[in-house]
Design goal:
By secondary structure, the chain is mainly alpha-helical. The chain is built from 8 helices and 2 strands, in the order αβαβαααααα. The protein has a two-stranded parallel sheet with strand order 1-2. Strand 1, helix 2 and strand 2 form a beta-alpha-beta unit. Helix 6 crosses helix 7 and helix 7 packs across helix 8. The chain is elongated and about 60 Å long.
């Protein structure tokens, strides 16, 4: 079983059983899936021993724990999804977005896709509008939150 399915089964079999995820992944999609499946805490293996103990103490007193960085990432993901939804991108827009996520500039993207730099600029502008972003960095971040780069 994957972790999410295991959490679901545990919640069905033992609804009152506390479920704490200990993971190396801080990917917001995995965090969201674990919490939606019924996990009450999500801890990162990279936590220092003292921070891990503090996290477990907080969980014990509140019945819930999520590091603040993951809370913020989850809130951003949900806000972007609620505000913008996941737009349908054309194949070309998707190609441009992937190359933007790799850090390529307009000229390099144009060279890779056999497009003029002005055409790439147009795609970037359109992507920013579709994703509600003010700049390329925010555009890529919103795309990641909407899982557009994983398709």
């Amino acid at each position: 079983l994957d972790g999410v399915e295991l959490i679901r089964r545990l919640r069905r079999l033992r609804p009152n059983l506390p479920v704490i995820v200990l993971s190396a992944s801080d990917h917001v999609l995995q965090v969201e899936q674990a919490l939606d499946a019924g996990a009450q805490a999500y801890l990162l293996k990279s936590l220092a021993r003292r921070d891990l103990i503090d996290a477990l103490r907080q969980f014990r007193s509140r019945g819930y724990y999520l590091p603040s960085a993951l809370q913020e990432a989850l809130a951003r993901r949900r806000a972007v999804r609620a505000t913008h939804g996941a737009p349908r991108l054309t194949r070309r827009q998707h190609d441009v977005l992937r190359l933007m996520a790799q850090g390529l500039g307009n000229q390099a993207i144009g060279a890779r896709l056999a497009l003029s730099e002005s055409t790439v600029k147009g795609h970037v502008s359109c992507l920013c509008d579709l994703l509600g972003a003010d700049n390329r960095t925010a555009c890529v971040e919103h795309a990641r939150l909407l899982e557009l780069l994983e398709r």
